[in-house]
Design a protein that fits this description.
With 111 residues, the chain is α+β, with helices and mostly antiparallel strands. Helices cover 26% and strands 32% of the residues. The protein has a four-stranded antiparallel β-sheet. The termini are far apart.
């Protein structure tokens, strides 16, 4: 039973709230790096727009992009500045989930 005399105390914050927030702007600023994505995909007309769409959703334009068609395979390399390793890995996982993408490798460049 609650008493009007006793102040109501909030419970202690759970330990999960103490972990690092990968999406916080401060973390993004401190850990931002240049990242190289290398993508192998089936050569389909819409694959470039699908892959670049992940960057457009974040209002990002890749600094450098190269696409080479080799038979039925398209090899793309792109450099993107200002990504944390965590955010770059999230983008790479989304790319890997596309049916026409065979492989995505990610390299965080020293900086």
């Amino acid at each position: 039973m609650l008493s009007l005399q006793e102040p109501c105390r909030a419970p202690n914050p759970p330990l999960a709230s103490l972990r690092e927030d990968h999406w916080h702007p401060r973390t993004t600023t401190l850990q931002a790096r240049e990242v190289r994505f290398t993508i192998l995909a089936e050569s389909e007309p819409d694959i470039l727009s699908r892959l670049l769409g992940y960057f457009a959703q974040l209002q990002l334009v890749p600094r450098w992009l190269e696409a080479t068609q080799q038979g039925d395979t398209l090899r793309l390399q792109l450099l993107q500045q200002g990504l944390t390793p965590h955010r770059a890995e999230v983008i790479a996982q989304k790319m890997r989930s596309l049916v026409s993408v065979d492989a995505v490798s990610l390299e965080v460049l020293p900086g």
